[in-house]
Amino acid sequence: MSALYRKYRPQKFEDVIAQQHITRTLVNQIEKGKITHAYLFTGSRGTGKTTCARIFARAINCLNPENGSPCGKCEVCKALSGGNIDIIELDAASNNGVDQIREIVDNVAYPPVAGKYKVYIVDEVHMLSGAAFNALLKTLEEPPAHAVFVLATTEVHKLPATVLSRCMRFDFRLVPAPILKEHLEKIYAAEGVKAEDSALDLIVAAAEGSVRDMLSVADRCMNYSDNLTYSDVLGVLGATGRESTRALLSAIARSDVGATLSGVNEACSAGKSVGLIAKDLSSYARDLLVLKTVSSGGGVLGSADEIEKMREEAQNYTVEFLVSVVNIFSAVDTELRYSVSPRIALECAALKAAKLASPDLSAIEERLTRLERKLEGGVAFAAPVGQPYKEPTPPPAQSANKPSDARSVWGRITTYFRLNESPRALGLLGSVEEVEIKGDKLVLWAAPDSFLQVSADDMLAALGRALAADGSGLTPEVNKRSGAVDMDSEINKIKKMIGDAKLNVR
């Protein structure tokens, strides 16, 4: 029994899925007889490049083409189907030297034996050496009328510009998941295999848009069982299920180091590949991100109930967190190439994501501590506007602004913020440099560059809540330290200079 990807390889253009923008163009060229001398097929693996090249090679030689595809019945089609010297395939990955290309150049002048054209299909053409490309250029630009070149590659950026300019380029697209799933259902029906809908989704997801990869996975699963379940496919792929992925992602989001490391250990102990665990986390976070930001679902696979469950789950995470998870775990695959311990690389990535999920309050806490220590030496007084700031001197003990009162009120406010306010509000509080009590007001002095991204209303509202809870009867007042540039004043000065023609503006 042959492999599925060979058994179900398309023999006609209409059998090629999701590449109509290419097949239609090729069919029109064949029907109109407008065959060019060189083609470039580029795209991801398993999307139909070599398949279309072979169909095209037979179609342009077919005596009676049907809708631009080879009839498969004429003498030429029969001759070409069994292998013929008129269709020459070269794998540039293993035949990339200048000698192989010179052999093609020497033989290209000989006319075809059975058909109208001699077709050269060069697969993985980006693997050719520089000398090989140079040897091919002249022939590629001006081949004999009976010669057609079809170059195929997955890495078109590695081709010289001189080659690209001589070819008609076709870009093969990754196949959308719904089309892959429909194609797989037809093949399994023909093979007499039953599969759960969730099992089909898992196979399609593993293919990542490649028809050949999907059929390879489907072949393995079919050999495992002819009545496939979701668990069967998970076992064949060695991947993690959504429940375990969901639990691990939740632990990362909570910044629960113990649960995170335990989840990684559980997945690794079950025999799951480190690369697949990272890939599952990245893919799952991507799906949640799509469901959170795209109302249509963005092609996320799964049953309606499962997708709705994931959509609700997505609301528990911020967009920033999901993007970070995708980036961090997508990079694990690269790190594994240089890591002596793949498991440690995965654990480090998980802990990194967990740290990013938790706001770092250490800097804010440190700043608040410094301010509290500063207040212990006495209450600071603000410098008059327009005068340089000087280090404050402690007021006399009998001053109305009692240091102990300001210190105690400030301490209670910071405690309230730590327990009741958001990290952002605590950050606002951390930008305060000095505190004093004037009458029934708690006056806070901030640096000139502080509160630039926060409205005064937000700051006053947060302080008002803290003082109300404190019961001190004080109301907040927030001032900036002098020294900040008065932009309005500076702008007016510049306008006046321009008006007085004292400033030469070019």
What does this structure look like?
The protein is α/β, with parallel strands linked by helices. The longest helix has 20 residues, at 274-293. The protein has a five-stranded parallel beta sheet with strand order 2-3-4-1-5, with helices on one face. A three-stranded mixed beta sheet has the order 8-9-10. It has a two-stranded parallel sheet with strand order 6-7. 53% of the residues lie in helices and 10% in strands. The protein is elongated and about 105 Å long. Mean pLDDT is 79; it is low at 379-387, 394-404 and 502-506. It has four domains: 4-172, P-loop containing nucleotide triphosphate hydrolases (Rossmann fold, 3-Layer(aba) Sandwich), CATH 3.40.50; 177-237, Helicase, Ruva Protein, domain 3 (Orthogonal Bundle), CATH 1.10.8; 242-357, Zinc Finger, Delta Prime, domain 3 (Up-down Bundle); 362-480, no CATH class. α14 crosses α15.
Task: List the quaternary state of the chains.
Answer: single chain
CATH class of the largest domain: Alpha Beta
Q: Work out the helicity level.
A: 40-55%
Structure summary, number of beta strands = 10
**Class computed from helices, strands and strand pairing:** alpha/beta
- Largest β-sheet summary: 5 strands, parallel
Mean pLDDT: 79
Strand order of the largest sheet: 2-3-4-1-5
Strand content: 5-15%
Global morphology: elongated
CATH superfamily descriptor of the largest domain: P-loop containing nucleotide triphosphate hydrolases
Distance between the termini: 81 Å
CATH topology of the largest domain: Rossmann fold
Tally of individual helices = 23
Provide the domain count: 4
